[in-house]
Amino acid sequence: MVVWTSAWLHGAAASDDVLDALQSWAESQEVQAADADLAARLDLPGPQETPAGPALLLAALRKAGAGNSELVLPVPGDARGLGGSSPFAKLAMRVGEAVVLPQAGIGLVPQRIAEGVLRWTAFEIGDLPPTEHLPIGEAEHGMASAMREAASALIDLGVAKHRPGVREEIGKTVASRPAPPWPEGVPQRTLRILQRATEVEAILWVATEDAPGAAMSASAIRGRTEALRPLFDAVRAARRASVAEMVRILADRAEKS
What is the pTM of this model? Predict the structure, then answer.
């Protein structure tokens, strides 16, 4: 959503391409505003009305003067990009992801409400503090460093042991992630980093699960959690930096054309 809406708003993608790309995450997409006032401002259905399709959201963003989009990936203890305790922030924290459109003062939160159905709820967010810029090279290096440190810590803790079928588990986790198309002109480096982040996250989820029949002590589980947390953070940072770089490149090219 972040990359494709930014591409569309800058004239680098057609609306049909955006709508087709969104289907990578769910076959059916629907949109509604979180309150009646925002619904009236954006010409979107309100919370008590039947949701509309995503084409209406694109029109609403254009009407609101939206420009670049930003990806937010909040977790407990890290609410950067949410701007305090608001209905938007609370739902975004619960879901774990959101889209922020600073120029329009709008936030979007996706929720999977049924099999194959993804609902985007639009919130009025006002002015949020600017997000910290993380260079993509720094994010990539941070993820690699965190991997080495986590591997060393797990070995020291004695919890990095062979697990039959682990490669198959990781492969299935990676394959279950959406593989969307991307707008023309997106840097290949950003795509490689996103793919690497997906692979590392798959390894992390397998690493946090106990092997069948295994029994870990509470202290071992705590140690494993502490060892892996920086790597989870590094994966989120790499994703945010990659998406931000895509948006920057698309916007720069649109300005020069």
Answer: 0.85
Q: What confidence tier does 67 reach under pLDDT thresholds 50, 70, 90? A: confident
Round to whole Å and give the CA distance between 126 and 105: 5
Query: Are 67 and 7 spatial neighbours (Cβ–Cβ below 8 Å)?
Result: no
Tokens of 164: 């039959």
Q: How far apart are CA 211 and CA 256, in angstroms?
A: 54
Comparing 111-120, 147-156, 157-166, the range with the smallest average pLDDT is: 157-166
Q: What are the structure tokens assigned to 163, written together?
A: 């697990």
As a whole number of angstroms, the distance between CA 189 and CA 209 comes to 31
Q: Give the torsion through C-alpha atoms of 195, 53, 107, 190, to 10 deg.
A: 20
**C-alpha–C-alpha distance, residues 191 and 117, integer Å:** 26
Within its chain, how far is the Cα of 211 from the centroid? 28
Q: What is the greatest pairwise CA distance in the chain?
A: 60
The DSSP result for 174-185, as a single string, is: HHHS------TT
Provide the β-strand partners of residue 111. 119
Band of pLDDT at residue 228, cut at 50, 70 and 90:
confident
How many residues can be counted in the chain? 257
DSSP H helices in the chain: 2-9, 15-22, 36-42, 54-63, 87-95, 136-157, 166-176, 188-207, 218-256
**81 neighbors 72 (Cβ within 8 angstroms):** yes
Residue with tokens 């009646």: 36
Asked if 6 contacts 18 with a C-beta cutoff of 8 angstroms, the reply is no
